[in-house]
Design goal:
The structure holds two protein chains of two kinds. Chain A is about 30% helix and about 20% strand. By secondary structure, chain A is α+β, with helices and mostly antiparallel strands. The N terminus of chain A is likely disordered. Chain B is mainly alpha-helical. Chain B is built from 14 helices and no strands. The chains are: A alpha+beta, B mainly alpha.
């Protein structure tokens, strides 16, 4: 993805190419990483406090145990990962703690060389043991510790320290995406000496933030603010700022007001266009919207009748006018983007218009010219064939506090009524919603799934395999799992493109998940905030080491 | 009098035990799972075994009766327990937030009483006039406008006119009284408008009734000035229901600031209770409800004592 494609000025959406992402993974795999080259320019000013609004209080600070940006945005500047996405070229990785990464010829052994002289915020030196402990903590968490991303390291057979600064990772099979997965922004390196005793008590590092990142957490007042202070012994060139303060402001309107009145300098998370759009007109403010690896899907529970019947699932897909969905729900929830297939908009793995149009209802994607009325006639016919009578009652489970969930469900319910179904929306708060969803206590659910990374294995593995963490519909399909596994270990990029495309063609046939749209999150900051680039992954580039204030 | 207070406190204690019991079981009846919420809810990939370990760690796998007994035991030692979400003592979390909520309530009620009683008096004294009509229309508007909507209008208006939005750091009253008052004045106005309207309407209604009484006619016949008639003879007799209303509204405000605190981002009890309930943070939610119930009990007792001060007849009944 070239820089010019990543984001245009003030919120114009763009569709990034991910072709070079594939090349980037393969390149890193074959040749190892190059040393970091970023240096602050003379014009860049040091000092100052960056005031950021977050969407609320983080539940805690244990980045491994969480999936929310509320924790990750505060944790990212405090921690380091082995490698990280290059903000200047988001398709490649650059060193963070690992100055060198090499993959053996058979693709199964990854050797990492850590930087010398890296210290944690408590003054202790980083060693390979810290990396081994951190990765094992993610892959096989101790009792009482949870790890939502353990699947990312599911291919790891063994992690061992080679001397003080060497780490060897043995994989069960070659995996081109492995370096991307292990460098996921949530996969931070914690201090073994700090984390191990707390983990043994089942607590984890929920309140103790001891990382090697450019900032250290110095104050945390729940409900009020969280202050990070420059870590003078940081191994990199930054940070430029003296301090970062995060303020938990729940409402988007209130966050927008705080930015307009210059109370805060930046907010890296907006969903509502009604809030973001006025900010674009404010002098001295940059507001943008970027596609992220977040999709909104309608998910039938295949363990319940009649959703075990693929004809019923196809009928649901046929009933949905995706163009209308995007135009209606987009301004509320950021569902502006669409893709041709399961990978993000603009992906090199995208299907052709002809291919995607072969699946029920997907010809209603913007620009594909589908006939929605004809689709709905087919849907009614399919329901009849499946023995689903007109007026059948169906319930869509939705989470009430997030527009992407709630408004999507309401819109979809309205569209499904067009094919004679009596659909209602069951809106629950987050606590009840997740209990019902993870327990399979629903017929249909709309879920906005925010992936913690944009690699193929992250999206397909987590989102579209039987054993993936996002299989809320509880389907089981050995064929799809096998196809996923085969593409995951394919080292030839050209062959892999074909395999990923084939996987998508097979998956879309099943209608296990019905893709409605992709989401773009908004971000806005004062023009005095310099050095931050909005990448197409919500969680990447949040370390803030290069950010400076031109005040 | 002391007997009366002791009796009321004993009844209050029984009430609090009842509230504690109901709250405990209501929180457990709510659909949802604290372990799911505290384990990266939404990430999807948490196994049932991992959740079971988290439940065990938090003691949520024990029988409900055991959990309840343990919690009540802690309460007997004035310990509200630890927050499941943050691991911090609930009492200290509440203590840190309580002053902001208390200050908004006090400021809102001061605004409401200072403006509402005179407005009601004026309205009653000039019943049927254009002033009365205007004040009545305004009070109906004040009652109809939800405080969160008023709050949003205030914020958007202030941003538009003065580029002002709520502050990021909230100063406690005892650190910087003036700054604290200026920071919390807008949320206090947002919630105070409803109370103002309510008090104005109640005062008007009561005063219209009182001003028609025989003793008022007698006072006028004695040649007292209208000001003395209304304020000394009318208002004092008419205040009892208004005081009852104020007492009730103060109690209700403590639990009713949730949305206003969210709009103005005030780190008070309202925001805390929302976070606690959404995250199924049982000890925190139970602790706040218990504190709010205690405030209602104390509020009612205070109103009863004020009755005695305002109306000697009730004092005699109490002492008998």
């Amino acid at each position: 993805m070239s820089k010019s494609k990543s984001s245009k000025s003030n919120g114009t959406p763009s569709y990034p190419s991910r072709r070079s992402l594939l090349k980037g993974s393969a390149g890193a795999l074959a040749t190892g990483l190059t040393a970091a080259t970023w240096q602050p320019a003379a014009a860049q000013k040091r000092g100052g406090t960056l005031k950021v609004s977050n969407g609320g209080d983080p539940p805690d600070f244990d980045v491994h145990q969480t999936a929310t940006f509320l924790t990750q945005f505060i944790g990212a500047p405090c921690y380091s990962t082995l490698m990280k996405v290059d903000p200047d070229n988001p398709d490649r990785l650059i060193p963070d703690l690992a100055e060198k990464a090499e993959v053996s010829a058979d693709g199964r052994t990854v050797t990492l060389q850590l930087r010398k002289g890296v210290v944690f915020h408590n003054g202790s030196a980083l060693t390979a043991e810290d990396v081994v402990y951190s990765l094992n903590r993610i892959k096989s968490p101790p009792k009482g510790i949870v790890s939502p991303r353990k699947g990312l390291l599911g291919n790891v057979e063994e992690i061992r320290a080679d001397g003080a600064l060497g780490v060897t990772i043995r994989l069960a099979h070659p995996q081109p995406d492995f370096l991307m997965l292990v460098s996921n922004p949530f996969n931070v390196i914690v201090s073994r000496a700090v984390a191990e005793p707390l983990d043994a008590q089942g607590q984890g590092v929920k309140r103790q933030v001891v990382g090697t990142g450019p900032f250290r957490l110095t104050q945390a007042v729940d409900g009020q603010y969280y202050e990070l202070t420059r870590f003078d012994r940081y191994f990199g060139q930054g940070p430029m700022l003296d301090r970062i303060q995060f303020f938990p402001i729940r409402g988007e309107v209130e966050r927008g007001a705080a930015l307009q009145s210059r109370r805060i300098d930046a907010c890296f998370f907006f969903a509502n266009e009604a809030v973001l759009d006025p900010l674009r007109k404010v002098q001295g403010v940059t507001a943008l919207r970027r596609p992220t690896p977040t999709f909104i899907n309608l998910i039938p529970n295949v363990t319940r009748k009649p959703f075990d019947d693929p004809r019923v699932r196809e009928a649901l897909s046929l009933a949905i006018d995706r163009d209308a969905f995007i135009r209606t729900v987009g301004p509320l929830a950021g569902a502006f983007f669409h893709s041709r297939g399961l990978m993000p908009p603009g992906s090199p793995y995208s299907l052709t218009p002809q291919e995607i149009k072969a699946f029920g209802g997907y010809d209603s994607l913007p620009g594909l010219g589908g006939d929605v009325a004809e689709n709905r006639k087919r849907a009614i016919a399919l329901l009849e064939q499946a023995g689903v009578p007109k007026g059948s009652k169906m319930v869509i489970l939705a989470r009430g506090d997030v527009p992407a969930f709630r408004d999507s469900a309401i819109n979809v319910a309205g569209q499904l009524k067009q094919i004679g179904l009596d659909v209602t929306v069951d809106i629950r708060d987050a606590g009840a919603f997740y209990k019902m969803e993870t327990g399979g206590d629903f017929q249909l659910v709309t879920h906005s799934v925010a992936m913690g990374g944009a690699s193929v294995d992250q999206i397909l593995g987590e989102g579209y395999t039987s054993y993936g963490g996002r299989n809320y519909g509880m389907w089981k399909d050995d064929t799809l799992d096998k196809l996923y596994s085969e593409q995951s270990r394919e080292l030839d990029p050209a062959k892999r493109v074909q395999m990923v495309r084939r996987f998508q063609l097979e998956f879309l046939k099943t209608y296990y998940q019905i893709n409605l749209a992709w989401v773009g999150y908004g971000a806005a900051h004062l023009n005095t905030v310099q050095g931050w680039k909005a990448l197409n992954d919500l969680y990447a580039n949040m370390q803030m080491d290069r950010v400076w204030l031109n005040a | 009098m002391l007997d009366f207070i002791a009796r009321r406190l004993a009844i209050g204690l029984i009430t609090l035990i009842g509230v504690a019991t109901i709250t405990f079981f209501l929180m457990r009846v709510l659909p949802g799972d604290a372990a799911v919420m505290l384990s990266g809810a939404g990430a999807g990939a948490i196994s049932e075994q991992e959740l079971a370990e988290v439940r065990s760690k938090m003691g949520l796998d024990r029988p409900l009766a055991v959990q309840f007994g343990a919690w009540i035991g802690e309460l007997a030692h004035l310990n509200l327990g630890l927050s499941l979400r943050t691991g911090q003592p609930v009492a200290s979390e509440i203590a840190r937030r309580f002053p902001y909520t208390l200050q908004i309530v006090v400021m809102a009620m001061v605004i409401a009483v200072a403006l509402g009683v005179p407005a009601g008096l004026l309205s009653a004294a000039r019943a049927g006039s254009w002033l009365d009509q205007t004040l009545r229309a305004l009070s109906v508007g004040g009652l109809a406008a939800p405080s969160f909507w008023v709050g949003l209008l205030i914020i958007l208006g202030l941003v538009w006119l003065f580029k002002w939005s709520p502050p990021l750091f909230w100063e406690p009253f005892w650190v910087s009284p003036w700054q604290s008052i200026t920071q919390l004045i807008w949320p206090a106005i947002a919630v105070g408008i409803r109370q103002l309207a309510l008090i104005a309407r109640m005062t008007r209604s009561i005063m219209l009734e009182v001003l028609g009484e025989d003793y008022i006619r007698t006072a006028r016949a004695k040649g007292l000035s209208e000001k003395v008639v209304v304020l000394r003879h009318g208002l004092r007799n008419g205040l009892l229901p208004v005081v009852t209303l104020i007492g009730f509204e103060v109690s209700a405000l403590f639990g009713g600031l949730i949305v206003t605190e969210a709009v103005f981002n005030v780190p008070g009890l309202g925001q805390y209770v929302v976070t606690a309930i959404l995250n199924r943070d049982y000890p925190a939610a139970q602790g706040i409800v218990l504190i709010l119930a205690g405030i209602v009990v104390l509020g009612n007792l205070t109103v009863d004592l004020l009755y005695g001060w305002l109306d000697p007849r009730t004092r005699i009944q109490v002492s008998r």
